[in-house]
Amino acid sequence: MRIAIPSKGRLHAPSIELLRKAGLRVEMEPRRLIVNTSKPDMQVLLSRARDIPEYVEAGAAEAGITGLDLVEESGADLSILLKLNFGKARVVVAVPENSGINRLEDLEGKRIATEFPGIAGKFFREKEINVEIIEVSGACETAPQIGISDAIVDLTSSGETLVINRLRAIHTIMETEAVMIARKGEEYKVSALKTAIESVLKAEGMRYVMMNVPEDSLEEVKKVVPGLKGPTVMKVEADEPMLAVHVVVHEDHLFDIIEKLKRAGARDILVTPIQRMVI
Prior knowledge:
Blueprint: E1 2-6, H1 12-21, E2 34-36, E3 43-47, H2 52-58, E4 63-67, H3 68-74, E5 78-83, E6 89-96, E7 111-114, H4 117-126, E8 132-135, E9 151-156, H5 160-164, E10 167-176, E11 178-183, H6 191-203, E12 206-214, H7 218-224, E13 232-236, E14 242-250, H8 254-264, E15 267-273
Parallel strand pairs: 1-3, 1-4, 7-8, 7-9
Antiparallel strand pairs: 2-3, 4-11, 5-11, 6-9, 6-10, 12-14, 12-15, 13-14
């Protein structure tokens, strides 16, 4: 089985790291575009992020990781299996900062430069705004400055590049992030890979909390940490009636929870990270 991932760019390193956490170590080799992994029956196809939707649709890879914006732009018949929580950005309509264009309607009859002619064309057709789409390849932020267009449709994350090029966004067409994709009707072929990656995503930010709790304090502790499906409770061989309580909580809540657990009678509290979580 093959999974296609970006060979470079902002999605490359996070994709490699996600596969590693899911149990697939990618054996990178210089200049090789198809590489092995720690799992003998699985390979990684390194490709331009823009080409991955078409490769997966054509069957060159059973699954892929790329941007949702590129999936939409390709028009390929694919299933979005998972959103991967990295590579987040927006596809926006932007104009020169000193332009008199402030609304989408002001773009009627204007020229729009973009690397996303499919997304841009569909968007303006649905809005019933007549524009001329000019497809460019890279650095479309400069198009208004050199007189090629009146506005652009482009990808932005922090907005810093727009500011540097004296542009301002007037509308967000879509939110995007990295996604895992497969061919429609063939999702079953990558179900094990999906489960492995999903377990990593579900574990993000979660912590495993273990503690000893006097029997008469258990109900108070359960009010503080109810857990995903209730805490795990085991008897501890001790001189006094004592229970071991294990529970999963999100790291954002730990600061307050630890103090509340102590007040409820918990002791010997231990917090550890979680690598993967299958529910």
